[in-house]
Amino acid sequence: MLGDSIPEELYTNKEHESIIIKTLGDSPKLRIIDFFLDNPLFDFTKKEVIDALGMSKQTFYKYFPDLEKYGIVKVSRRIGKAKLYRINMEHPLVKMLKEYEKRVSLQIAEEEEIALKQ
């Protein structure tokens, strides 16, 4: 399902790194959060996230439980035995990261505009 809609290279190619990854670092936990932030309207199985990120199962399962435990991601629904997850937009960290991303994007746009005028 996901493999058709979100190409893995979006999350594995340095050229496509998000502002959050570029500025805060490329840690596995942050990559998982960033994936969910990029797709706030959708929910995903763990396998779909692992496949999209090109991350090993071992690495994913090392970090994902904390994200669920602290409420950064939450179960949105169940299909059979499978749980689907989505980002918790009400979580304080998620709100801060969204605001951070917006401010840094605006700053970069302003700097690029100034550079073009010179």
Strand-helix topology:
Layout: H1 2-5, H2 9-12, H3 19-24, H4 28-38, H5 46-53, H6 57-69, E1 73-79, E2 82-87, H7 92-117
Helix pairs in contact: 4-6
Query: How large is the count of helical segments?
Result: 7
Using only C-alpha atoms, the radius of gyration works out to 16 Å
Counting structural domains, the number is: 1
Shape: elongated
CATH superfamily: Winged helix-like DNA-binding domain superfamily/Winged helix DNA-binding domain
CATH class: Mainly Alpha
Assign the CATH architecture: Orthogonal Bundle
What is the CATH topology assignment?
Arc Repressor Mutant, subunit A
| Share of helix, binned | 55-70%
- Class of secondary structure makeup: mainly alpha
Quick one: biggest sheet? 2 strands, antiparallel
Structure write-up:
- By secondary structure, this protein is mainly α.
- It has a single domain (2-117), classed as Arc Repressor Mutant, subunit A (Orthogonal Bundle).
- The protein is built from seven helices and two strands, in the order ααααααββα.
- It has helices at residues 2-5, 9-12, 19-24, 28-38, 46-53, 57-69, 92-117; strands at 73-79, 82-87.
- Strands 1-2 form a two-stranded antiparallel sheet.
- Strand 1 (73-79) and strand 2 (82-87) form a beta hairpin.
- It is elongated, with a radius of gyration of 16 Å.
- The termini are far apart.
